[in-house]
Amino acid sequence: MRAAGDRAGEERAEGDRAAGDRAEAPGPFPRTPPLCTLVHMGYLLLAAAIAAEVAGTTAMKYSEGFSRLGPSLLTLLGYVVSFALLAQTLKTLSVGTAYAIWSGIGTAAIAAIGVMFMGEGVTAAKAAGIALIIVGVVVLNMGGAH
User: Fold this and answer.
1) N or C end of the chain: which has fewer CB within 10 A?
2) CB-hemisphere CA count at 13 Å for 128?
3) How far is CA 27 from the centre of its chain?
């Protein structure tokens, strides 16, 4: 028969082991996050890179050939941020996948912005092209090209 003190000691030891499981790995380097977390972060960074690229390209339209300072600076900022984020994305996603998504969705978004906000016309060819870009990105991702 065990004494009450022995049971309390075992419970403490169990709690210490459970707490140790949640703690960082010993040593100078933190534990690496699970791969799925890194991939999700890659896609989040990629989405931000696309948004920055779309903002930069939209500002370029309003820069009037880089003759207006404000939109020209926004164009520069948009592209610098976009490439910096795209470079971070390449740490977790393959270059082919990341670039295809970045350029494809960026192109489709700029075409849609042109139609909705800049008075550009919609033709059957333009609509089909945007649809093909979206289908291509979906097929690329379904193919497991991470």
Assistant:
1) N
2) 3
3) 30
- 101, 82 Cβ separation under 8 angstroms: no
Specify the DSSP class assigned to residue 68: S
As given in the structure block, the two tokens for residue 105 are 């969705």
DSSP conformational letter for 30: P
pLDDT mean by block of 10 residues, the chain; 146 residues: 53 49 58 68 94 98 96 98 96 88 91 92 90 85 66
* Segments making up each domain of the chain, as ranges: 34-142
**Are 54 and 74 contacting, i.e. CB atoms less than 8 angstroms apart?**
no
Closest CA to 38 of 87, 94, 89: 89
pTM exceeds cut of 0.90? no
DSSP annotation of 143 = T
Q: Residue 5: CB partners within 8 Å, gap ≥ 6?
A: none
Give the contacts of 77 (CB within 8 A, at least 6 positions apart): 56
